[in-house]
């Protein structure tokens, strides 16, 4: 079996979770733009996500955000999703939009505010029982803007105590993944600003707690694949939030800003045992589509991940290891770059057709008439979005 055949054989293991909120309206800090056909309900978000999976075969689950996707009957929502051919995935909490969380949520010095935030996460765990979800993902906007504003060590202690209570509420097969972000909206200090803080907090919790790595949440020049390697080495990489950045947390289409970076990340994922259904590492998108159409934006995103994964699988690891052992810098770098510069798009088109998928999912979506139909069917009502 040649390298390409081997790579394509493993490509069937790729699964990318899409976020429900990517199908709603979002925007900059200054304006949220409405678009025709935007979902008004979580059911319509799931239907759009199911269309992405139908055309790509890459997106079998949809992440939910609470309370944005709150419903009365989560078991029925799970059944609805399964009827469309997708499952419900990660449950994402929200402690950053209520007035009470102005000075923090799980880290707040106000006991009643912390209680509210903890109870929200315990509610999310109950939702996970009904949806069949494995992961509870926590991202905190907690932090301060000015030196002396609060006790930064005390906030870490309160965070640890809050997370311990949430962790204790997890079921046997459930996990907690703690995301980090080095700034925004807190500008002096953020309570979970880096992978080390997330690692330290999750390590203290136990074996069901992991780090979530958002590819946009790093300072310029950060070697993200090094962090990926280290967390895999330590057994604490739980999930990814894939997106692209030019300046900060831009939430642009993954692979748009730096395809080579995405390739390098996927190489380390594969090298470190983080690729495949049994790896324990969830690959998820976390993006906004403010200018481009949302469903094609998600299709392009999962295809970008697939393409860079295919290229990463083409790395001749035996030859690379030999060159590395020999100290042949240029040979090693050349082997690495040869895989990246391989145009796998024609082979991927054939691979999709062999599985009953359209060779060109973007063109197939455009020809499907789905966008025209939802533009007409979803006229009126309140479009979903996070507001501004």
TrEMBL record:
UniProt-listed Pfam families: RhaA
MF-aspect GO terms: L-rhamnose isomerase activity
Top EC class, one word: isomerase
InterPro entries membership: L-rhamnose_isomerase (IPR050337), Rhamnose_iso-rel (IPR013457), Rhamnose_isomerase (IPR009308), Xyl_isomerase-like_sf (IPR036237)
Record flagged with keyword Cytoplasm: yes
Keyword Nucleotidyltransferase annotated: no
Catalytic activity, EC: 5.3.1.-, 5.3.1.14
Protein name: L-rhamnose isomerase/sugar isomerase
Source organism of this protein record: Paenarthrobacter histidinolovorans
């Amino acid at each position: 079996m040649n390298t390409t055949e081997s790579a394509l054989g493993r490509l069937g293991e790729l699964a990318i979770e899409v976020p429900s909120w990517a199908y709603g309206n979002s925007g900059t800090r200054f304006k949220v733009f409405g678009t025709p056909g935007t979902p008004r309900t979580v059911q319509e978000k799931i239907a759009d996500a199911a269309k992405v999976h139908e055309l790509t075969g890459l997106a079998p689950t949809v992440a939910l955000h609470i309370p944005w996707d709150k419903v009365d009957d989560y078991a029925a929502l799970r059944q609805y999703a399964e009827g469309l051919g997708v499952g419900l995935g990660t449950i994402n909490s929200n402690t950053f939009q209520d007035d009470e969380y102005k000075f923090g949520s799980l880290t707040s010095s106000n006991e009643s505010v912390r209680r509210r935030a903890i109870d929200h996460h315990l509610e999310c765990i109950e939702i996970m029982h009904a949806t069949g979800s494995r992961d509870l993902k926590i991202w905190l906007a907690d932090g301060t803007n000015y030196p002396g504003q609060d006790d930064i060590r005390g906030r870490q202690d309160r965070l640890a105590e809050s997370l311990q209570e949430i962790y204790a509420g997890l079921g046997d097969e459930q996990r907690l993944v703690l995301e980090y972000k080095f700034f925004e909206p807190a500008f002096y200090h953020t309570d979970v600003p880096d992978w080390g803080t997330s690692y330290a907090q999750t390590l203290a919790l136990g074996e069901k707690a992991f780090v979530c790595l958002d590819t946009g949440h790093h300072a310029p020049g950060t070697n993200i694949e090094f962090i990926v390697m280290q967390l895999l080495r330590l057994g604490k990489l739980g999930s990814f939030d894939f997106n692209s950045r030019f300046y900060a947390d831009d939430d642009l289409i993954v692979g748009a800003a730096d395809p080579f970076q995405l390739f390098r990340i996927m190489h380390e994922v594969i090298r470190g045992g983080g690729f495949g259904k049994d790896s324990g590492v969830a690959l998820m998108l976390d993006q906004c589509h403010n200018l481009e159409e949302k469903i094609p934006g998600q299709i392009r995103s999962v295809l970008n991940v697939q393409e860079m994964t295919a290229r990463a699988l083409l790395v001749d690891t035996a030859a690379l290891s030999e060159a590395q052992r020999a100290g042949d810098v240029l040979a090693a770098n050349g082997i690495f770059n040869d895989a990246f510069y391989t145009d796998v798009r024609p082979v991927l088109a054939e691979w999709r057709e062999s599985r009953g998928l359209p060779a060109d999912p973007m063109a197939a979506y455009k020809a499907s008439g789905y966008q025209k139909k939802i533009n007409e069917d979803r006229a009126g009502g309140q479009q979903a979005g996070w507001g501004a």
